[in-house]
Amino acid sequence: MRKYRIPISGAITAAAAAAILLVPQLGSATNVAAVNGAQTGDPSYVYRIDSSAGQSEKLFADGFDVLEQRDGKDLFVLGTKGDGDRLRGFGFSPTVESVLPAPQWAPVPKRADNDPLVPADVNETYDGGYHTVNAQYAHLDQVATQHPDLATNVTYGKSWRKNRGLTGGYDLRAICITKKKSGDCALNPNSAKPRFFLMSQIHAREITTGDVSWRWIDYLVNGYGTDSTVTSLLNSTELWVVPIANPDGVDIVQKGGNSPILQRKNADYLNGNNCGVSAYSQAGVDLNRNTGSHWDTSGISHDPCSQVYDGPRSDSEIENTALEGLFRNLYPAVRGSGNSAPAPPDTKGVMITMHSDASMVLFPWEYDYTVHTGNDAALRAMGKAMGSITGYQYGQAGEILYNASGGTDDWTYDKLGVASFTIEVGDNTGRGCSGFTPRFSCQASFFWPKMKPALVYAAQHALTPYRTK
Ligand code: 0X9
Ligand code: ZN
């Protein structure tokens, strides 16, 4: 087979890279498949197109994945079997140059407590047990079906790919968990119960965080009526979870199978598409630099290939505007303008966005550590408490990590006054669970026991976070 170098197009480059990277491993993957029954997707096709100069632009515009490889005036496009017909429909005459085998990975055995009747894709995993986007979404459906008195699903938007009508995009989904009374979980900021909001994988490759959300959801729905802490939480509080805030990015990550692709950003390649797919150069916008809170002021880059590219304008990305729309539907805007106006002491609500893996509890202002919020004492007190529960450092980002503008937590605090935190879920104990893709057994043995009490603490403070001393 020919060797294709780095593909040009950002969004589908990961698929290309996954397929290409997996080729050398095919022998061992096949063996694993024979033993465990590997999950496979569809093969990818490389099409050769006799094309005059400039047509790559048209191919991009039509959503095709043009590879960097050239042969005279021939171009190469990576796609599905059906893309051959689509290319013909756009007036091209493709021939199949090669077929790349589908990524393969071995699923973990079913979780011991799994109902054998649940849809199969709840168990679809990669890299030893991490759940795919579809599995996370099937989990939300399963939980709502099994616990109609406790769980409500909300679709709050579409990912960048889905919104553009490209293949492989996803809905943006949340779940609300509470012992339901009339009006609970409504998209109305004036809720009877205070709201604790947990989100994960806005940075796609930080895969520990999605797993913590999965376990948090299970802990809540399985504990109601049997665990007194959970029971009183669900009676008093709405627990919202967005397990995957950046599903297009996670789709790229999971295509690496047992070697996840280290995509951090979303899949929006329109600002620059010649980035490759490495951990340090990749297409996409960093969603945690893109929000309209002090956008473009610190810890950012204007290079579209950079890990911290903040986008062409504030809130340019649909994953963020959709999420912000959800936040506005869940929390009233109670904070005045300016950097030091406090939210009132009786403000309700806590938001935690999980990242990895610096082992830190962070709170606003994250864009500039020399500026403190008007709620600094209470945010710091909650940060300190969660720091002592987890064994993590705590502080504003610039105090212990680096200043960075346009993050989710600065936005929810800035625009709405919500008590907001980033928890960098990590291993600072030398137990071998550090990095973006720790072995899956670290989740049950290390991260979940560490995070559970911190999340319970935060949820229990959703009524009056700013009264914390
Ligand atoms: O740089 C980030 O976005 C976060 N670290 S990570 O390694 N997970 O990428 C820290 C974000 C802290 N919060 C804000 N800057 N808003
Ligand atoms: Zn992160």
UniProtKB/TrEMBL annotation:
GO CC terms: extracellular space
SUPFAM superfamilies named in the record: Zn-dependent exopeptidases
GO molecular function (one): zinc ion binding
UniProt EC number: 3.4.17.18
Originating organism: Solihabitans fulvus
Protein name: Zinc carboxypeptidase
Keyword tags: Carboxypeptidase, Hydrolase, Metal-binding, Metalloprotease, Protease, Signal, Zinc
Catalytic activity: Releases a C-terminal residue, which may be hydrophobic or positively charged
Signal peptide stretch: 1-29
Class in the EC hierarchy, top level: hydrolase
Cofactor(s) demanded: Zn(2+)
UniProt similarity note: Belongs to the peptidase M14 family.
GO terms under biological process: proteolysis
Active site: 424
Database matches in Pfam families: Peptidase_M14
Peptidase M14 domain span: 129-461
Function: Carboxypeptidase that possesses the specificities of both mammalian Cpase A and B. Thus shows broad substrate specificity, being able to cleave Cbz-Gly-Leu, Cbz-Gly-Val, Cbz-Gly-Phe, Cbz-Gly-Lys and Bz-Gly-Arg in vitro.
Hydrolase recorded as keyword: yes
